[in-house]
Amino acid sequence: MLDVLTGFAIIFVVIGVGFFLGHRGVIGHGEARLQFNRTAFWAATPALIFSSVATSDTSAFTSPVVAVIAIASVATMALYGMLSALFFRRSGAETMAGAAAASYYNSVNIGLPIATYVIGDATFVVPALVLQMAVLSPFIIAGLNAQGTSLRSISSSVVSGLTAPVVIAAIAGFIVSAADWQVPEVIMAPLELLGGASIPIILMSFGASLTGKGLLANDRLPTITATVLKLIVMPAIALAAGLALGLSGNELYAALILSALPTAQNVYNYAATYQSGETVARDTVFLTTFLSLPAMLAIAGFFG
């Protein structure tokens, strides 16, 4: 459990560095800060995803645990979209940012230590990562990039989602892993080095963004809704889906813990890159990162 707490501490320390640098003006506002997100989106994060997926074991991709996580993710996104249409009345792009914040969990820098030290098995983390990057990310990016309802606008958004660097990296990594190919070290080593910059860049940009308007200053209701959906409703949906599919014991426990992970910083990175729904994404990431640990401890206590 100490390693899990260390994982959370590392995140908050790097966010704090970003906040300090933003406060001192080292990281500028607006376009200056967005360069961090664009660098991560177009280069560092794809490198991290490819190098992680390409060396993974694809046998876990057919596990019912992955199916449960997929059901919970899609159902939670749809539920947020319905609530937004009824109560928030935000644009399509802003709604997509909130839906992603409610369902897109941190499967890397928190998911890996959580899976290793709380679940006792990191088998399902990489399949969950591929599910998010290759299946959910195209829809999220297309929604964030939507500029209208015309056929041309819709087709452009779909293309942008399918050809996003993170999506291509996930698919390419999966192909390499499934084919059991060995990527030459001269290629993999630079990718791993570049990928190592992804998380610090995103976290520092996130911290710098906190020097602007305070937490919950805007989009309070959408943010609280996304937070509740992420930490309470999504695990509840995973529980129902897991029981329906016959999961029990460690498999059901793993599905619930992974579903209760906090919102991924990638959601903020997507929102900042496309400049849509940045506030709700940022604030939900912040709140769920603080509140997810009690939620996961409650699940762990329930399972003994």
UniProtKB/TrEMBL annotation:
Keyword Transmembrane helix listed: yes
Keywords, in A-Z order: Cell membrane, Membrane, Transmembrane, Transmembrane helix, Transport
Any Pfam family matching the protein: Mem_trans
Gene Ontology CC, one term: membrane
Membrane topology designation: Multi-pass membrane protein
Subcellular location: Membrane
Keyword Thylakoid: no
This protein's name: ABC transport system, permease protein
